Amino acid sequence: GRLDEALAAHEEAMKASGGVANVALTTGTLLLRLGRFDEARAHAELAQQVSPGDAQSLLAEIALAQHQPAVAERAARAALAAGGNSMAPRLALAEVLVAEGRLEEALAQTDLVLAELARRAPGQSYPKLWWVRGDILARLQRDAEAEQAFGREIQSFPADTHTYASLAVLYAAEGKPDAAIGALRRLVESQGESPAACAEAVSTLRVLGDAPGAAALLRHALELHPGSSQLRALEHTG
């Protein structure tokens, strides 16, 4: 898929550059998104000496993806202690606090990220900020604010599939099944029915208890992408 193509390009850049920190971090981030955690961690460690804050931020995200909140919190706090841009480690720390049920503290971390963003880049967006904030607001049952947050994330970063899924789950919790399906339809259509988008929608439909809808979408997606390992894996977990 597109992530694999992007990864191939970054691996070529790694070879050409000798593994400079920014290329290592970008490659590590792509590996994280592909679920290749050990390789992602190795790339983060390559960048430790030159960009300790960014490297620790990536290590925190990897630990979160592997459901290791204690490891993630240590890495996020190490990134903050390293100085520099604190937005990424604060977002990682917010996610750790969510995992620990410390929602108000997590929300406060996103407030700090918003304040730093306003100082550094007024009027700009930052990846995952509104998604993380929306998730916290939804957990606090501040549904209208959560909807707005997810909407802002989608507007700024329409290729991020997780936000559509979170919005669909929120709509379902609010008793708006048509809106939930609409969010998933937007997810699939906005990504050109990519394997990653279809997989996210299938998984979300299963979470929402719509097994027939999930099965129908998976069949359709496999017809479009018969070689997708991501979709094939869903065949065995349904």
Unreliable parts: 14-19
Strand content is under 5%
The overall pLDDT average reads: 90
Count of helical stretches: 14
Largest sheet: none
Structural class: mainly alpha
**Could you tell me how far the N terminus lies from the C terminus, measured between alpha carbons in angstroms?**
22 Å
Helicity level, as a percent range? over 70%
Radius of gyration from the CA trace?
Answer: 18 Å
* DSSP strand tally: 0
Mass-distribution shape: globular
Q: State the order of secondary-structure elements, H for helix, E for strand.
A: HHHHHHHHHHHHHH
Task: Sum up the structure in keywords.
single chain; 238 residues; 14 helices; mainly alpha; globular
Write structural notes for this entry.
- This protein is mostly helical and 238 residues long.
- The protein has 14 helices and no strands.
- α1 runs antiparallel to α2 (21-33), α2 (21-33) packs antiparallel against α3 (37-46) and α7 runs antiparallel to α8.
- It is globular.
- Mean pLDDT is 90; it is low at 14-19.
In brief:
The chain is mainly α and 238 residues long. It has helices at residues 2-17, 21-33, 37-46, 52-65, 69-81, 87-99, 103-120, 129-139, 143-156, 161-173, 177-190, 195-207, 211-224, 229-235. Mean pLDDT is 90; it is low at 14-19.
List the helices and strands and how they pair.
Layout: H1 2-17, H2 21-33, H3 37-46, H4 52-65, H5 69-81, H6 87-99, H7 103-120, H8 129-139, H9 143-156, H10 161-173, H11 177-190, H12 195-207, H13 211-224, H14 229-235
Helix pairs in contact: 1-2, 2-3, 2-4, 3-4, 4-5, 4-6, 5-6, 6-7, 7-8, 8-9, 9-10, 10-11, 10-12, 11-12, 12-13
